[in-house]
Amino acid sequence: MTTPPFSLLQRLLFGLIILLALPSCKRESKADAAFYYWKQKLNLNKAQHQLLDEVAHGKLYLRFFDIKWDSFAGKAHPEAIISFKEAVKTEKIIPVIFITNQTFEKLSPAGIDSLAMQSNQLLQRLAAAQKINYQRVQFDCDWTLGTKEKYFQFLKSFKAISNKQLEATIRLHQVKYQLRTGVPPVDKGVLMFYNMGKLSPNPQDPNSIYNPKDAATYISYLPKYTLPLNIALPLFSWSIHIRDGQIIQVYGKIGKKELHNPENFQPTAHKNVYRALKSFFTEGIYVKTDDLFKLEETDKALLEQATIQLAEHLNKEEQKTIIYYEIGNLDLSTFKTADFEEISAHF
Amino acid sequence: MVWACADYGYSDDYSSFSPEAFVAKEYTPFFYSDFSTYYTKDYTYRDDNTNTRYNDQIVKEWYDYFGQQLSKTDLQYLLLKASAKGIDSVYQNFKGKINVLPDSMPQLKKQKLDKKLVNSFFEYLSLAKSAEEFSANYQEYYGWDEKPNYTAPKSMEVSLLTAFQKTKDTFIKQRLWFQLVRYYYFLERSTGVKPIKDSQLMKAFDTYKDTFPKNMIYYRTLGYVAGRHYLAKDYATSNYLFSLCYDYAAEMKIPAKWAFHPNEETDWKQTLAMAKTKEEKITLWHLLGVYFDTERAIPEIVALDPKSEKLDLLLSRVVNITESSRSGYWGGKEDSTKTLRKNTALISGIALKNNTSKPYFWNLAAGYLNFMSKNYTQAAKFYQAAKTQLPKDNQLIMAQYKILDWGLYIRQLKKIDAKAEAKMVEPLNWFARLKEGKDTIPDLRFYQSLNQSLEVISDLYKKQGDPLKANIFRNYHEFYSNNQQIESLKALMQKSNQTAFEKAMLQYYPYKLEDLYFFQATTLVYQEKLDEAIALLAKTKEQNDVMLGNPFNMRLNDCHDCDHQMAQSKKFTSMSMLRMMKNLKEEIAAGKNVYNNAYLLANAYYNITHYGNARTFYESELTESYSSYGLGIPVPFRQMFLSSKIAEKYYLIAREATKSKEQKARCTFMASKCERNESYNRSYESPENKKANYWNVNTDAVYFGRYFAVLRQQYADTRFYQEALSECGYFKKYVSKVR
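^ Those are the sequences you sent over. The predicted structure of the assembly is below.
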């Protein structure tokens, strides 16, 4: 069968469609940007400050402390409390509190309100000392079926006590299984679009930070998620330390530079996997002969790929913040201001 | 079968090698543990902390200072317990300014003490107490509150310096020197860390370090110097100095090891270069071995001095780490063979050279590693070599040898004959006494070895076609499917002239004669041999078990809790229930009141299945049948405890015997319950559920069966039919579906 040539009318219509489509290509993104800061000491260098100002106008999601379970004392307690080594731009800070799921596994229902109270008091005290006047608080907890009720009750209680806007991080599996895992009672969710694969000691397994195959199994559920979402994107890289087929640790501080030192490591048949040639100390870590290091990196290309895959499933008309994780350990040679603008524009 | 035993700790789960047998006690915290930082029975180590670690030492030093004239109790009070005010009161009393002191306080006036010594002591003590505010006042702190402040006050420097310059007493002077260095440590830590060359701490230490003896207080002072280098990130020096502290005293080992921290390989090389003697180098390699890498450390130390006692801890760790990598608290590691292979080669090589200080330790370790590698011939050679070297008077070591030797013997057995049995008598008795706590050998890890060997023995007997002995060594359910086997077990247990081996063996059989009677009695009930069952049940204590609900009642929907809570005018015991069942059966046979009697008997037979309100009737440890899920009942007993076939039979007899349509309808419905239970039972046996557990078992969709059809077709006009419709959702669903 032959196709007839386009009629004039058809050609005109086609042109019109292109013309109509153009404005949406040039549409201003409704997303603004922010950074996470996750280290214990707040201490940004000049270049980090510059990036924070240029990309995010100073908007910073600052981790204030973690809440963990102390099994000896049988109670929850804060750890890694932030210490401020510099003055901060106080109006742009959103405090973040990380809570281990184990805390809610162990915490008795009777202890929820007092944990909320204690958390709020500690947060207030730390913020007041820096004259930080915050309006929102973000909670990060990888809750499960067993802890859902206690965690959600905690959020309600915290809201009632603090009277602040609340955000909660949402993992991909919690989007996919929202009926089972529930939707936290907060004002906004933050979709963590990373750590989607399992950390694996297997050299051929894909990047666990982001890989399109794992992502694909979750993202089609996004439009049905009932909570408005901000988006958290990864900027980090790490290497997985593997000994005798087992993961020993994951380090942000061992990167390409260390693994490309031919005195200590040699590449293996697997891309991004390196073998230790001897036993030695580096960066406070002890490496043994034949240990493997699996480097999982995020670079601009990977981030862009993730962004394009994700943006397709999001409502572009919805105001959202793209939060980059994270600025404290960011390799400034990998990402420039313009890169972030390009990425944010996809949303 | 596993015997849990709290006294022996978790190590017993995977280990048959006690470090206590070979390694000096002071290294105990660093024995390998796969779940806590330090090896101990009190694994919190709450009693060992910075505030209290040196208490005993301090008291002893001052006790000697006073020529043992001032009691340790008084010293403990003054040094460790009293407040500044309390100390002042005691001193004022001594000087005669306060006449009476409470009895709880030391009365120094009455004792003949050297005045000069007492005066120096109290002057020092008041300074030391105020220094404790920031240096030895560590409190457990949960971050919700303000962080406690441990800052050294500026003003203290002058008081310490003045006192230090003034005193002529060397003992006191060295302690003031310690105080000064410690004071600077806290001061410099909190006011920003300056380079070492500008450190007052270093100045204070270096100026006087050669004027004092190298005693405990010297090394405690050195610990702060090491800490100061750590603060300045000079890890090379810090590690070297900490290693000296580690080597000096048991009290310093935990903090020194904790602080040992090479950051880069260059730090480590520099540290090694600082070592002045062979012994110092050995300590450094020893620390690297404990903390990071035994395989790297051991050859280095052997090269320096194969007789070094610092090898002992490392060797024990190699063995325990290898054991744990195969099946530790966290489960076996994926690639444990590599660790095993490497360690076996390394330790065997050293053991063969035979030039260590405890050759039996190396031979036993090498033998055991070879045993784990399944090189049994090699293992035997090492054990043989060890045997001649063992210290015969050391109970723990001899027991350790025995365990390893036994494990190897059992593994190598191909067949158990009379000769082998005779040989096993003594060790079996020995293990049994330990297991039952009739003997104790502290720190011996024997459970794993014993459990494994019982398994091996049981398997061998099974292979040899001797199920009786196989079952005695390791109880297995299939054994009880054969009554002949139970009878032979009973006979053996009751035999008056048991052989030594039979006696030894029977110590491992976990059940009593009575348990066998009970099992046989229940089996007979389900075979409908009630007379025989009653006779056997009479020999057990279970005959008096009280049934939770009335076993002769039945409802449309099973509800055990409802049955158990219902008021019962008469509580049935197992025995009274069986007697009643027997009567019912006899009446049925005689044709008396058949409908009622058969209906009641059917109810009882239903209720003593897994689905009924009296399932406690059959439950026992021997059958491990306490499960509230059908699948949890061991396969050999499932048919017996799960089947409702007998109940169904009597419901049908009852139906046959009545003319009343209402009663017929009821019997039909009850038979349908039996029929449905059978459908569950069938699904438990289906191939796809072979490996299933109660949370993932696939049961068929609700099975309606033939009795629902009968009920609908023949009894739709009864009142009972309406009752069944309103009570039973399944039936309602069935009826609406068929319509």
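The interface with chain B takes residues 65, 70, 72-73, 75, 77-79, 81, 118, 121-122, 201, 244-246, 279-284, 286, 288 of chain A (CB under 8 Å). The first strand of chain A starts at residue 31 and ends at 37.

Shout if you want it in another format.
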